[in-house]
């Protein structure tokens, strides 16, 4: 799993459990890497990650498309 994939997984889970809309103002994300050590992502970095999240299909959409 790449760091970007891990970021997207974290954001996907947060999006599912948060009552508010997920945006760069209401979450914080930190990471630990060998190169940078401990780092809290900036609001700008968070927004880039949120904008780059893959679109997720509605539940049951894959089953409906595979039956045709």
What do these coordinates show?
The model is unreliable at 57-68 (pLDDT under 50). By secondary structure, the protein is of the alpha+beta class. It is built from three helices and two strands; from the N terminus they run αββαα. It has helices spanning 3-17, 43-51, 61-66, and strands at 30-33, 37-40. The protein starts with a helix and ends with a helix.
Please estimate the helix content: 40-55%
Tally of DSSP β-strands: 2
Q: Write down the domain tally.
A: 1
Distance between the first and last residues' Cα: 33 Å
Strand order of the biggest β-sheet: 1-2
Strand count, sense and closure of the main sheet?
2 strands, antiparallel
Radius of gyration: 15 Å
Poorly predicted regions are 57-68
- Give the helix/strand class: alpha+beta
How do the helices and strands follow one another from N- to C-terminus? HEEHH
Number of helices: 3
Topology:
Elements lengths: L2 H15 L12 E4 L3 E4 L2 H9 L9 H6 L2
Antiparallel strand pairs: 1-2
């Amino acid at each position: 799993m790449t760091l970007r994939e891990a970021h997207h997984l974290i954001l996907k889970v947060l999006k599912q459990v948060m009552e508010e809309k997920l945006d760069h103002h209401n979450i914080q994300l930190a990471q630990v890497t060998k190169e940078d050590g401990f780092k809290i992502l900036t609001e700008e970095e968070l927004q880039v990650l949120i904008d780059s999240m893959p679109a997720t299909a509605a539940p049951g959409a894959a089953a409906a498309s595979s039956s045709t």
